[in-house]
Amino acid sequence: MSFLKRDRDNFDPALRQAFKHNLMSHPLLQFDELKKLALRHPTVRFHSANLPRTQSLDTVVHERPTGFSLEDSLENISTSGSFVFIMDVQKDPIYAPFVNALLDEIEGDVNKKQSNLRNRQAWVFITSPGGVTPYHRDQEAATYFHIKGKKTFWLWDALDRDIVSQEENEYFHGVHGLKKTLYSESKMDKAEKFEINPGDGIYFPYTAPHMVENGADEFSISFSVTHMTDEDFNARRIYKINQILRKLGFSPSDMNHSKVIDSLKLSLHFFLRYSLFPFNLGWNRNE
């Protein structure tokens, strides 16, 4: 069974693109089933949906609580002003087969141009009317399926240095944080805007900045599956090395400036990773 409707022959994981899908009526993506998932699932984040575009998602849970419990936020989602984020859906035994089948389909497309699809994860977003998901970036590439309600979605090119600077990339990849990922109105001129309804989907490349605003008339449900590839991991590694070099007083070249220099940085990363990991100095052997 195919879940996505897109031009598979011309799919490029480096490019933003819209598509259609047939998941709106999938039984596991109906609101009642998602409520059950949220209430039994160990990793659910919820907070106010009434956010400025500049709100940092690193601090939103503490800075913008709803004042409701998770159960009350969901039971009254049309009026509670809540954003409910169900994380790591692929770990739920009921949802895992569905998530894996969907990612298997996506892997067939991605592997035409990139290699070794991994870090396979899934997420659910349930948002009260008028809610805002502020400007931010994620650590993966995403295939985003809209299920219920209406949304306006803005998406930017992560390779545009007017939008994402080299130093922002070094911080973002080096510490996995959003401190330097900042919204400004001037960025709107370069955003690609999508008005999405049930049955619409958006693919956005690795770490592409984005922002979402929910329609005012009803709550929304969206579902996203994410991944990384070998190429994505190498980009992260190069920026980690750049961050170290900058801390040491150097001015490192940006990624893709020189294939030879990028290769040397990757070699340095692997050397440091395997040297430092046994001493528990913050290097993850899987990165």
Please characterize this protein's 3D structure.
By secondary structure, the protein is of the alpha+beta class. It folds into two domains: 226 residues, Sandwich (Jelly Rolls), CATH 2.60.120; 48 residues, no CATH class. It contains seven helices and twelve strands. The strands form two sheets. The protein has an eight-stranded antiparallel sheet. The longest helix is centred in the last third of the chain and has 18 residues. It is globular and about 55 Å long. The protein starts with a strand and ends in an 11-residue tail after the last helix. 36% of the residues are buried.
Write the layout of secondary structure elements.
Elements: E1 4-5, E2 17-21, H1 31-40, E3 44-48, H2 60-63, H3 70-75, E4 82-86, H4 96-110, E5 118-127, E6 132-136, E7 141-148, E8 151-155, H5 166-175, E9 192-196, E10 200-204, E11 210-214, E12 220-228, H6 230-247, H7 259-276
Antiparallel strand pairs: 1-2, 2-10, 3-4, 4-5, 5-12, 6-11, 7-10, 7-12, 8-9, 8-11
Helix pairs in contact: 5-6, 6-7
